[in-house]
Amino acid sequence: MDHFLYRDGTLHAEDVPLPEIARAVGTPVYVYSAATLTRHYRLFEEALSGLPNGIFYAVKANSNLAVLRLLARLGAGMDTVSAGEIMRALRAGVPGARIVFSGVGKTAEELALALDVGIRQFNVESEPELELLSRIAAARGRRAPVAIRVNPDVDARTHAKIATGKAENKFGIPLSRACEVYARAAALPGIEAVGVDVHIGSQLTDLAPFELAFRRVAELTRRLRAEGHDIRRLDLGGGLGIPYARDNAPPPLPFDYGALIRRTVGDLGCEIDIEPGRLIAGNAGILLARVIRVKQGEGRRFVILDAAMNDLIRPALYDAHHDIVPVAEPAPGAAGEIVDIVGPVCETGDTFARARPMPPLAEGDLVAFRTAGAYGAVMASEYNSRPLVPEVLVHGDQFDVVRARPSIEEMLDRDTIPGWLAESAG
Ligand code: LLP
Predict the structure, then answer these.
(1) In the beta sheet, which residues pair with residue 233?
(2) 12: domain CATH number?
(3) pLDDT for 311-350, tens place per residue?
(4) Could you tell me the distance, in angstroms and rounded to a whole number, from the CA of residue 424 to the centre of ligand 1?
(5) Which end of the chain has less Cβ packing within 10 Å, N or C?
(6) Count of structural domains within the chain
(7) Which domain, by its residues, includes 60?
(8) How far apart are CA 282 and CA 295, in angstroms?
């Protein structure tokens, strides 16, 4: 459930009519609902209630500082994957003690920064990373709290580009080598192994792969304990899928996921940490765009929007489906038409939907891409020299621009022409 509903014939974000935001900020623009973010965070809290737990929001899903601050105020910790994300979490008011650091390619500088800000846990993905972290920590007279990310070789049954738990993926340490790596960790002066970490992929719409992975983690935890390691935390990653198309069967809910966690690892007495991103932010955001023009092609009708693949890349990159709805509520039973919905960028990949039945759309109409709050704005670029898409956060009947649209001048001012080219052409 989200808070983007039609009211009096107009799509609203909470109590704000979307045309009001389009007028004030222009389009394209991402619009987030604070109430939806809050509701989704609470669903995870409820799902894990009774278990010692930590919810570490995956910053990569939507890293706007206002979104992070809102979640931090609800009690969320943050799962980060770069120095930039760590700095964002800190800027949003999250203390280092509530930040975990994941990622397969952490640099020495990033590891040092994370140590210096007192990060809660490093999710270590390889032996060379473990050795490097130990050296950096030991040089500071410290022991870095570590969970080793294991690769359980499980098929997450999601899009190949976002599956991470198969042996062929670059992530984690093979389960078969885990005991050896924990033994090495125990011998290193700068490491304190506190847990086990796993993350098998994103947009999972079936709980079975989670079940397989979590059972393997439980088994490993028992073995590691028997070998004398004090495993007290399990970080189960993120990945719970969300409904992108209203007509499809809904994926499992956080409640079902919580029950699965209890069933598979609940008896170990470990603190259970999770790293949800998409489920918290996805349905809490829409991308608001305007129809620039409708063009009749050879046997096809193209609706050309002012949003493009540089603003929302998921359809181009993953063939992802996003429901696209008109902001003016169509009359019940209004005759629809089959259209291709495209952006203005100069490549055919800039297509949001092919042969999509839509209510009639005309130049100047506003449309909303649903379920665009996660992996939307964060993946935006300035391709075709289109200024970075702005973001708005709605809270009840108020809305605030939480990232302004840069002017074209500001965008150009980031480039410099070297002295030897200073003289202008011609
Ligand atoms: N933890 C780790 C270590 C991750 O790599 C990810 C996502 C998450 C947590 C959060 O997963 P979530 O709950 O959001 O599924 N750009 C792609 C998604 C990439 C996900 C990468 N890792 C997309 O637009 O579908």
Answers:
(1) 195, 271
(2) 2.40.37.10
(3) 999 999 999 999 999 999 998 888 889 999 999 999 999 9
(4) 46
(5) C
(6) 2
(7) 34-281
(8) 31
